[in-house]
Write a structure and sequence with these properties.
Structural class: mainly alpha
Strand content: under 5%
Distance between the termini: 65 Å
Largest sheet: none
GO molecular function, one term: DNA binding
Number of strands: 0
Number of domains: 2
CATH topology of the largest domain: Tetracycline Repressor, domain 2
CATH architecture of the largest domain: Orthogonal Bundle
CATH class of the largest domain: Mainly Alpha
Order of helices and strands: HHHHHHHHH
Protein name: HTH tetR-type domain-containing protein
Keywords: DNA-binding
Helix content: over 70%
Length: 197
């Protein structure tokens, strides 16, 4: 196994561990043991846990960006793109462990703020582009207050992704309902399908 392969394997193991039980309770010893390597080898590749967390978040951000691009390129029109986008968000929501988010916020504040800011910028751009696409395709009405609609959606997203309470929302029915609710809101309120005259 090359050095790069080993580093990638460690990142995968650490990501799974962090997502399952949180970041704070997992030590570098735990990660080394789970990977079947010495602590010395782990520290040769990653200076500390903060470096490991930062690398994982960078990878997640790249994956998120690539998936938004895939959704855009595969969608047959703006409505299909928007529905696929919400399905993707719903899938992310189901797999996010609140402990992981809370640990990021508490112990890795700079990384958390960076992740949040980058995600917000990507989603805002995605939604802006989607609205413009829908208008040009003639499936959305010309929306006068696009920015306000996008900002309102961003606030809703922030509440559900970054401010949620794990005890109240554990996934399953609540998450499915959230996905349908957001999709209904966006389809009915922002990209209204024009009626045939």
């Amino acid at each position: 196994m090359t050095k790069d392969d080993k580093a990638e394997y460690i990142l995968q193991v650490a990501r799974a561990y962090f997502c399952k039980i949180g970041i704070h309770v997992v030590s570098m010893d735990d990660i080394a043991q789970e990977c079947g390597i010495s602590k010395k080898t782990l520290y040769t590749l990653f200076e500390n846990k903060a470096c490991l967390v930062s690398m994982i978040l960078e990878q997640e951000q790249e994956i998120f960006e690539l998936n938004l691009e895939k959704i855009n390129s595969k969608a047959i029109n703006a409505i299909d793109e928007l529905i696929s986008f919400f399905k993707y968000l719903n899938d992310i929501y189901i797999h996010i462990n609140t402990v992981f988010i809370n640990d990021l916020r508490k112990y890795y504040k700079d990384s958390f703020i960076k992740l949040r800011k980058e995600n917000e910028q990507l989603v805002e751009l995605f939604l802006q582009t989607n609205i413009e696409r829908g208008i040009s395709e003639g499936v959305y009405k010309n929306i006068e207050r696009k920015e306000s609609a996008i900002q309102l959606f961003m606030k809703i997203m922030e509440l559900f992704f970054f401010e949620r309470d794990q005890e109240k929302l554990r996934g399953g029915d609540e998450v499915e309902f959230l996905g349908k609710l957001l999709c209904m809101w966006f389809l009915k309120r922002v990209p209204v399908i024009q009626q045939n005259k």
